[in-house]
Write a structure and sequence with these properties.
Blueprint (H helix, E strand, L loop, with lengths): L3 E6 L12 E9 L5 E5 L4 E5 L2 E8 L2 H7 L9 H11 L1
Antiparallel strand pairs: 1-2, 1-5, 2-3, 3-4
């Protein structure tokens, strides 16, 4: 089912001894070469894999993911902001 959770297998050559054997992704569709197209929402990259396990009863919780991201406030000095605006013109 489109948008469900899928786990793409990570080959032995690309992982270390204690790394996960699969990566949690979102199912996007089927590629031309009989492979599945997946989105890794953490790295924001497309993964194409033939060895995939689907968890069709669950979907990615987008609001939970954004809550885990830490927002860092950026404070600008007014003089620095004016200088950067003048250099852009």
């Amino acid at each position: 089912m489109f948008g469900c959770i899928a786990y793409a297998h990570v080959p032995d050559e690309k992982r270390k001894k204690l790394d996960d054997k699969g990566v949690k992704c979102i199912f996007l569709g089927i590629n031309d070469s009989k492979a599945y197209k997946l989105l890794n929402p953490i790295t924001k990259k497309i993964v194409i894999s033939r060895d995939v396990v689907f968890k069709e009863d669950s979907t990615w919780n987008w609001s939970e993911q954004s809550a885990n991201q830490q927002q860092i406030p950026v404070l600008f000095d007014e003089n620095e902001a004016d200088v950067s605006n003048q250099s852009d013109q």
